[in-house]
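User: Reviewer 2 asked us to show a designed sequence for the structure in our supplementary figure. I'm pasting the C-alpha cells here. Could you produce the per-position amino acids so we can include them in the response letter?
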C-alpha cells in the first residue's frame, strides 16, 4: 500500500473491511458476451413508464457524455481509487421516458438475463451513470462493453455490466445476486455485504 492510502483509510475515504487493489479485477457470473454487430443492440426502458422506450446503440451513444471520477468497492473487499470514466449521466437517459408516479425501484437488466435491483433515488443520484470508457479506454468485453451501469456509492455488484435495460417498479424485488444471498441494498459504509451477515 502507498502511504497516501493509509492516510485515506484513516481519513475516512475507504469503507470498513476493504483492501486496496492495483489492478482491475474481473468478476461476474456466466460468460462474457462479445458483440460483433451493434445494430441488434438496444436499450429498453420499461415497467412503470407511460410509454416504453427502446433506444438503438446510435441513439444511446448520441446522448451527452462526460467524465466521472470515483472509487469503487467490491463486496469481496477490493477497492480501486480514482477511476476516471467517460459516460452518460442517468438523468440524460431519464429525459427520454415519463415514469408513472408509483415507480420507486429499478431493476437493471443485463445480457443473459442477469439483473440487480436498487431504489430509484439511488440510481438517480448525480454520481450514477452509464459507463462507456474506463481510464481512457473503451470498456473491454470483460468489464462490460458496450455499456455498463456505474453506481459508485453501493457495492460494485450493483454496477451491471452489459446493461440492456431498466425496469421501473413499485416494490423492491431481488436481482440475481440478491436472490443468492447478497444484501438488497449493499451500502459499503454499513458493510451490507450478505443478507446472512
Ligand atoms: N451483467 C453482470 N454485471 C455484473 C456482474 C455480473 O455477474 N453480471 N457482477 C457484478 C459484480 S459481483 C462485480 S464485483 C462487478 C465487477 O466488475 P468488473 O469485472 O468490471 O470489475 O460487476 C458487477 N456487474
Ligand atoms: Mo462482486
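Assistant: Here is a per-position design you can include in the supplement:
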Amino acid at each position: 500500500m502507498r502511504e497516501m492510502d493509509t492516510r485515506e483509510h484513516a481519513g475516512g475515504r475507504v469503507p470498513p473491511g476493504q483492501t486496496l487493489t492495483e489492478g482491475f479485477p474481473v468478476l461476474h457470473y456466466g460468460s462474457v458476451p462479445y458483440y460483433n454487430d451493434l445494430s441488434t443492440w438496444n436499450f429498453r426502458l420499461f415497467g412503470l413508464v407511460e410509454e416504453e422506450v427502446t433506444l438503438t446503440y446510435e441513439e444511446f451513444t448520441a446522448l451527452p457524455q462526460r467524465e466521472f471520477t470515483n472509487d469503487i468497492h467490491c463486496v469481496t473487499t477490493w477497492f480501486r481509487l480514482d477511476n476516471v470514466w467517460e459516460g452518460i449521466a442517468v438523468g440524460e437517459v431519464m429525459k427520454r421516458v415519463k415514469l408513472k408516479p408509483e415507480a420507486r425501484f429499478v431493476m437493471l437488466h443485463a445480457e443473459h438475463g442477469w439483473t440487480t435491483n436498487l431504489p430509484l433515488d439511488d440510481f438517480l443520484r448525480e454520481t450514477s451513470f452509464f459507463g462507456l470508457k474506463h481510464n481512457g479506454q473503451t470498456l473491454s468485453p470483460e468489464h462490460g462493453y458496450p455499456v455498463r451501469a456505474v453506481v459508485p456509492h453501493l457495492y460494485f455488484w450493483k454496477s451491471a455490466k452489459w446493461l440492456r435495460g431498466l425496469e421501473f417498479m413499485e416494490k423492491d424485488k431481488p436481482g440475481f445476486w440478491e436472490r443468492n444471498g447478497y444484501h438488497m441494498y449493499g451500502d459499503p459504509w454499513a458493510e451490507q455485504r450478505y443478507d446472512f451477515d
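For the response letter, you might also mention the following. The chain is about 15% helix and 30% strand. Confidence is low (pLDDT under 50) at residues 1-7.
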